[in-house]
Fold this sequence. Notes:
It contains 6 helices and 5 strands; from the N terminus they run E-E-E-H-E-H-E-H-H-H-H. By secondary structure, the protein is an alpha+beta fold. The chain folds into 2 domains: 2-74, no CATH class; 76-139, no CATH class. Strands 1-2-3 form a 3-stranded antiparallel beta sheet, with no helix packed on it. Helix 2 links the parallel strand 4 and strand 5 (71-74). Helix 1 (31-42) crosses helix 2, helix 3 runs antiparallel to helix 4 (93-108) and helix 4 (93-108) packs across helix 5 (112-126). The longest helix has 16 residues, at 93-108.
Amino acid sequence: MNWHGFPVCGFSDAEQHFFATHLALVSNENTWCYERFFEAISALNYIPEIIMGDGDTMISAAAKNVWMLIKRAMCYAHVKMNLKKKLQPKVMDPVRETISKDVALLQLASSTAEFVNENLLQRKRKMGRPKLASRALSFS
């Protein structure tokens, strides 16, 4: 996240409210600068489990260099924005719609199995096969 062009770090609560806790004045937004930012946070004896952002590869690389076991997540708003941008000129409307719906389902799922089951359930309902759909639901 950026505020007036400067990287910001913070926390989100259960109701998805963001609380900024760190602001970095950097000369550049590259891996080296992000590493210094993350090292300053690490010096406070804080090791995050997950880092979320816009998918910037330099943030990902810096986070892995500082916290080797960190998981990287991407903000859903950025996923939607990037997906729309990438699919718009290249993909036909029905395919674009299917991909967008799958990504929307994926962001709601708490596991790969949950996503696969929900996706299968929705496709069977769409095909007009409610018995198969209810059977798929009972296995999840």
